[in-house]
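task queued by scheduler; priority normal; single chain, no ligands, no partner chains; default sampling; output format set to C-alpha cells
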Amino acid sequence: MDPPNDWYNLLADLDFELPPDLPPPNGAAGGLSPQIPLSLIRQELSTKRWTPIPDDVVARFRQWRPTPLRRARELEAALGTRATILYKYEGANMAGSHKLNTAVAQAYYYKAAGTKRLAVATGAGQWGTAIAEGCRMFELGCRVYMVRKSYEDKPYRKTIMEMLGAEVVPSPSEETETGRRFLAEGQSSGTLSIALAEAMEETLVEGTRFCAGSAETYSMLHQTVVGLEAMAQCSELGAWPDVVVAGVGAGSNLAGIAFPFLGRALTGEGPEVRLLSVEPAACPKLTKGRYAYDYTDSSEQTPLQKMYTLGSRFTPPSMHAGGLRYHATGKLISALFDRGMIDAVAYRQQEVFASGTLFARCEGIVPAPESAHAVHGAVVAAREADERGESPTILVSLSGHGLFDMSAYEAYSNGTLDDVEVADETIEESLAQLPEVAEPVASAGGRG
C-alpha cells in the first residue's frame, strides 16, 4: 500500500459555506494573511474535492507512510467489551505525531514561494518538532516559540528540535514586544495564543514567514492522508467504523482521520459515522465555549474567525496535554459542531491518564497525553455501548507517542497528578472580553 496521491477536501461535499473572516475592530488586518503562500490560500478557499499532492511531498511521506492500522485486542479483553477498537498510529516518525503530515507540505509550499525561514508556535512540542523536520527537509531556517510550561516540562522536545536545526525560545519571552508585555503581567507559564503572537512578530525579519499547523482549513486538508489510508485499511479488514474518536486542540487531528469517512457518508457512498471530539476539562472550548468571532492569537492583530472559543485571553490551568491548550477550535470543526455533525466530550487528567496507562500496558505504545484523551473517549464509548447491548467498531486516532511525556505518567503513577478543571466563572470572564463585531447573517441549522 502506498500513501495517497491526493488530499480530500470536505468543503466540496458540504451544503453550507463557512462564515467569512472579518477584520479586527482596530482595523489592523483583514482577510487571509499575506504571510501565507498563494498556493495555500487557494487550498484554504477551494471547493474542489481532490487536491494533488506534490511529488516531492509524496516522496517524503514514503519515509513513514502508510502508517499502521491495528486492532486493540488486548485492550478490548481488558475492558471486557463487545466493541471492536481499532487505532491508527501516527507516532512512528521523527516528529512523533500526525503533525508531520502538514509540516512537510507547508515547508514545501513556503520554500517554493521564496521563504528563507519559518517562525512557528508550539504547545507541547509536536508542531515545533514537525516543522523543524519539515524545514530540515527543504533547507529552511526555523525558529520555534514553545509554551514555557511545556518547554520546562519536556526538555527533550527542545533537544530534538535543536538537533534538527531549529532555534527554540520559551514563550512568553524577552525576545518580542508581546512576550515582554505578558511577562510584565505575570503570565510566565504561557499559552499557545501568546506563543502564536510572538511567532508572528518574527515576520519583521526579512525572509521570515509565520506558519501555523492545525486550525487552518488547508492544514486539515493535508491531514486527510490519515483518514484516506484508514478507509482503505478498514475496507481490507472488513471493519468499517461506527465511531471515529480523536483528541481536539484546534482540530486537525480529528479532521485528518474523520473527514474522509464523513465525506463518504455525506455523498451516500458510505454509512453514517459518529465523530467524537475529546478535549480536556481544563480547556473545554467545544463543550463550554461560545460560537463567536474571536482573534486567533493574543496579538489581536489577526483577522477574526467564527469558532468555538474560550476567548483569546483565556489562560488554561496547568495541564500536561499541551497540544490541547489552544483557546479555540478551527472554524471548519466549529461549523460542523454547530450543525450537530460532531459530538464533543471533556474529561479530567486523571481519568485520561488511567486510560493512557491501560492502553500502554495492553498495546505496547505509550500514548501522548493528547492521544490519551482519544483513548479515554474510546474506552467510555465502548463501555456505554456495552450498557446498551451494542457492539460498535470504534476507530481511534492515536496521533502520537508519549515518550517525552513520562513526567506526566510518573505524576499519575505516584498520585501527584492534579485533576484540573476550569471554573465556569473563569470562562465567563474570558468570554466577556470577546471583540464586539457585527456578524454577517448566519445560516440556519446551528445549535444557536
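post-processing summary
- The chain has two domains: 62-95+217-431, 100-213.
- The longest strand covers residues 141-147.
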